[in-house]
Specification:
With about 350 residues, the chain is of the alpha/beta class. The chain contains 11 helices and 13 strands. It is about 35% helix and about 20% strand. The structure holds adenosine-5'-diphosphate and the ligand N[C@@H](CCC(=O)OP(=O)(O)O)C(=O)O.
C-alpha cells in the first residue's frame, strides 16, 4: 500500500480508546496498533500522541468525590499511564515493533534549547524504528503549566518534527455545521484560513472524557495548517480508520495548508509562553504583518514598548486593543526599540522570517 505522506503524527483522544463505562477499550487499542503496523510496513513513520492515562487510572482505582481535582488527576494519571503504555508495548511487541514512552510538559518546549532536545529525542527514536508514544506528564503538569489538551501537544509535535500531516482521532467524524448528532448538521470536509467562520458551529460540548473540546481542536488545527501541515480530524472508532483515511476513502474534516513555514517559524508559533516582552503596534503595522505578504515589523508602526526584552528574545506583538497580532524574535533590545518608536528608516525590530502571525 502506498500513502501520500512519509511522516505523520496521530493523536488518539481518550474517548477513542475508552469504553462508555470508562474502562480502556483493549480491542480498539489493538486495532489502532495493528493499523500503525500496516502503515509502518509501507514505509511511513508514525508518532503517536495518546491520551488515556486518566481514563486508564479510573479503571484501576476509585477516587473519592471530595478529593482535590488536581491531586485526583495526578493519582489517576500516574497509575493509568503505566497500564496504558504496557498495553501499547505488548501490542506493538506482537508486531516486532518497539515503542517508547515520552512524557512531556509545556516546560520541555520552553526555549529553543529545550525544544531542540525534545526534537532530537524523537528523531533518534524514529531513526531506530521505534514508535514514540507521547503524552503530557500529568503527574507534574498542573494548572497553568498544563497544555490546553493533547491536541495542542500534538500540533506542537507535528510542527517540531516537520510532519507531513497531523491526524486527530476523536469520537466524531469531523467538524459539523452544528451538533454532530443532529440530522440537520453537515460534515465540513475542507476548512481553510482561520476558524472564525466555524466558531459559530461548534458548541462547548466535550466528549465524555475529553479535555479541550472541539473549538480548541479547531483552532489548533488551523494554526498547524497555517504552518504548512495538513490536519485531518476523523473518528478513531471507525474500523480501519488510518489506512482508509490515508487512502482518501474516508469522509472527514481536513484543514487545508498554506505555504510551509521554516523550522524556526514553527518554533516561534508555539512559543507564546516563552515570550519575554511586548510591543504595541498601530493598525497599519497590524495589517502589514497579517495580510499574508512578507512584511517585517518596522519601528514606524510601533506605538509602545510595553515590557522589556533583549536582542534574540521572543516578543509578543499586540494591537492597540491588546489583542495578540503575532510572535517574533527581536533583532535588538527594548531600550533601542523605545528610542526608535514611530521613526522612519530604521531597521526592523522583527524580521519577516522570524515573525509568526496569529490567526
Ligand atoms: N460542530 C461540532 N462538530 C463536531 N463536534 C462537535 C461540534 N461541536 C461540539 N462538538 C463536540 O466535540 C467533541 C470532541 O471534542 P473533545 O471532547 O475535545 O474530543 P477528544 O476527546 O477526542 O479530544 C465531540 O464529542 C462533540 O460532542
Ligand atoms: N493527558 C491526559 C489527556 C488529556 C487530554 O487532552 O485528553 P483528550 O481531550 O481526550 O485528548 C490523559 O492521558 O489522560
Amino acid at each position: 500500500m502506498k500513502f501520500p505522506y512519509r511522516k505523520i503524527v496521530v493523536k488518539i483522544g481518550s474517548n477513542v480508546i475508552t469504553q462508555d463505562d470508562g474502562l480502556p477499550d483493549h480491542s480498539r487499542i489493538k486495532d489502532l496498533v495493528d493499523q500503525v503496523a500496516v502503515l509502518r510496513a509501507s514505509g511511513l513513520e508514525v508518532v503517536l500522541v495518546s491520551s488515556g492515562a486518566v481514563a486508564s487510572g479510573r479503571s484501576i482505582i476509585t477516587v473519592a468525590e471530595k478529593q482535590n481535582a488536581v491531586a485526583a488527576r495526578q493519582l489517576l494519571a500516574s497509575i493509568g499511564q503505566v497500564k496504558l503504555i504496557n498495553t501499547y508495548a505488548a501490542l506493538f511487541e506482537a508486531h516486532g515493533i518497539n515503542c517508547a514512552q515520552v512524557l512531556v510538559t509545556k516546560e520541555d518546549f520552553r526555549d529553543r534549547l529545550h525544544y531542540l532536545n525534545m526534537k532530537n529525542c524523537l528523531q533518534i527514536l524514529l531513526q531506530h524504528q521505534v514508535v514514540p508514544i507521547i503524552n503530557e506528564n500529568d503527574v507534574v503538569s498542573v494548572t497553568e503549566l498544563m497544555f490546553t489538551d493533547n491536541d495542542e501537544l500534538a500540533g506542537l509535535v507535528a510542527a517540531m518534527l516537520g510532519a507531513d500531516a497531523l491526524v486527530i482521532l476523536s469520537n466524531v467524524n469531523g467538524i459539523y455545521t452544528g451538533d454532530p448528532k443532529s440530522p440537520d448538521s453537515r460534515l465540513l470536509e475542507e476548512i481553510s484560513g482561520s476558524t472564525a467562520a466555524i466558531a459559530g458551529y461548534v458548541t462547548t460540548g466535550k466528549s465524555q472524557f475529553g479535555r479541550g473540546g472541539m473549538l480548541t481542536k479547531a483552532s489548533m488545527a488551523a494554526k498547524t495548517a497555517s504552518l504548512g501541515i495538513p490536519v485531518h480530524i476523523t473518528n478513531g472508532k471507525t474500523d480501519n480508520v488510518l489506512p482508509l483515511l490515508l487512502a482518501g476513502k474516508l469522509a472527514h474534516t481536513r484543514f487545508a495548508t498554506e505555504k510551509r513555514a521554516s523550522n524556526k517559524k514553527k518554533w516561534i508559533a508555539h512559543s507564546e509562553n516563552a515570550a519575554s516582552g511586548t510591543v504595541q503596534v498601530n493598525e497599519g503595522a497590524k495589517l502589514a504583518l497579517t495580510c499574508g505578504r512578507a512584511s517585517s515589523l518596522l519601528p514606524v508602526g510601533i506605538t509602545a514598548v510595553l515590557s522589556g526584552f533583549q536582542k534574540g528574545d521572543i516578543i509578543r506583538v499586540v494591537d492597540e486593543r491588546g489583542q495578540t497580532v503575532g510572535l517574533g524574535i527581536a533583532e535588538y533590545g527594548a531600550d533601542k526599540a523605545k528610542e526608535r518608536i514611530g521613526q522612519k528608516n530604521q531597521r526592523p525590530l522583527v524580521h519577516y522570517d522570524y515573525f509568526y502571525a496569529s490567526n
